[in-house]
Amino acid sequence: MTQQVQVPSQLIIASRESRLAMWQAEHVRDRLAALYPDCQISILGMTTRGDQILDRTLSKVGGKGLFVKELEVAMAEGRADLAVHSLKDVPMDLPEGFELAAVLEREDPRDAFVSNDYASLDALPAGAVVGTSSLRRQALIAARYPHLVIQPLRGNLDTRLGKLDRGDYAAIILAAAGLKRLGLPQRIRSVLAPELSLPAAGQGAMAIEIASGERLDGADLRALLAPLNHLDTARAVMAERKVSKIFGGSCQIPLAAHATVEGDTMHLRAMVATPDGKRSAHAELTGAAGQPELLGERVSELLGQQDAHAILEAIRQDASPDA
User: Fold this and answer.
1) 89 is a catalytic site residue
2) Per-residue pLDDT tens for 222-273?
3) Cα separation of 111 and 83, whole Å?
4) CA neighbours within 13 Å on the CB side: how many for 88?
5) Of the residues 51, 81, 89, 108, which is catalytic?
6) Of 79, 165, 166, 205, which residue is 20 to 30 A from 285 by alpha carbon distance?
7) Which long-range contacts (CB under 8 A, 24 or more apart) does 215-222 make?
């Protein structure tokens, strides 16, 4: 039996203004409009610091939180009621007073190889320049293809594709989900199997953030958004984010975690590496889908037994300023 929820007269969704972010916000808007046709739903487009700072890598300017802070301020000030995020951009610890109310069904979580001249990473010649925004991807590529040159790649999806088309890179690595959502699957020359390029925690998933306990016109926002929550995806990303949280997961750490759910069973794989890919720890385990955080903890313990903490300490030492 479906629980009756009170519906507010209007909802305002905060979103970054990139084409992909707006697609995601519009997708949520349309899903909510179908559920609650009497509710007027609009989108508040915003530019975040993460969108503005394009001359440095995320690992050097503050990491994931740069993409969500302004949206949280809009909610705190009452200018927006909810925010839609790519989950891999959401920090593991949300500020006090905020929560994730729903995680939508996941799109393809894999990394995509994009090139105008080459069919795969294996086809790239020595010295070819590969662009990526992620230390995780950098570490995985460097470990398997030490003959390639890896260069930072910032900007929204269209900007990154433009840099490739301009000839700045022989190939770039992007999330397959974004290309598919924007109707650009033809740009994908090949997808990288998770066994070769383990995805980031939350990759391919969208999340809806709200102010904790927020009520709008008497409506419980969490209950209002509950029909959009996809249980298998929510559980999978909970396990992945648990691993990332335990190891201080951020843009400064090459860390991957990817879970798959089949019925009541979940399989979780995780990896921690140095940015040059020369040292890494890998672990995987199968457990109960209904206990995702426990599985995340157990996989983290296995990583710890494989020297993951020493790897992280080496990363921190390298990142420390000389003076």
Assistant:
1) yes
2) 999 999 999 999 999 999 999 999 998 666 789 999 999 999 999 999 999 9
3) 25
4) 25
5) 89
6) 205
7) 216/8, 216/11, 216/81, 217/6, 217/8, 217/9, 218/6, 218/8, 219/5, 219/6, 219/7, 219/8, 220/5, 220/6, 221/81, 221/82, 221/101, 222/99, 222/101
